[in-house]
Amino acid sequence: MADVLDSLAHIAHHTDAIEHHREALVLYRESGNTYLEADTLEHLGHPHRETGDSGKARAVWQLTLDLFRAQGRFAEVNAVETAPARLGSGLRSRSGPRCGKLDPCPWNQ
């Protein structure tokens, strides 16, 4: 189901895409699939950026970087850090708590 929601988000209008990605994130977290959680977070940043919410886009991509680094996905880290569409510089590796099922996350604020 999470895969379907993430796929729907790619063809949906930006606000619908945000909701589909959020729903997919919940399901990936519940199932413990951090690999696809990271991919979905990366996808979620795009509609936030397209709707003009650069703060949420940057926060989501920061979480993406944290997960990619923890997973050893260094090609993806490089792509996120160097893509011009990522709102310029400022994304970096950091340590800190991940958003959990009940923890506040930037896309819910």
Provide an overview of this structure.
By secondary structure, the chain is an all-alpha fold. It has a domain of 39 residues. 65% of the residues lie in helices and 0% in strands. The protein is built from five helices and no strands. Helix 1 packs antiparallel against helix 2. The protein is flat and about 30 Å long. About 10% of the residues have low confidence.
Number of strands: 0
**H-E order:** HHHHH
- In whole angstroms, how far apart are the ends? 25 Å
Shape: flat
Main sheet, how many strands, which sense, barrel?
none
The average pLDDT value, as a whole number, equals 77
Strand percentage:
under 5%
Rg computed from alpha carbons, rounded to a whole number of angstroms? 13 Å
Total number of helices? 5
Given as residue ranges, the uncertain stretches (5+ residues, pLDDT < 50) are 93-98, 100-104
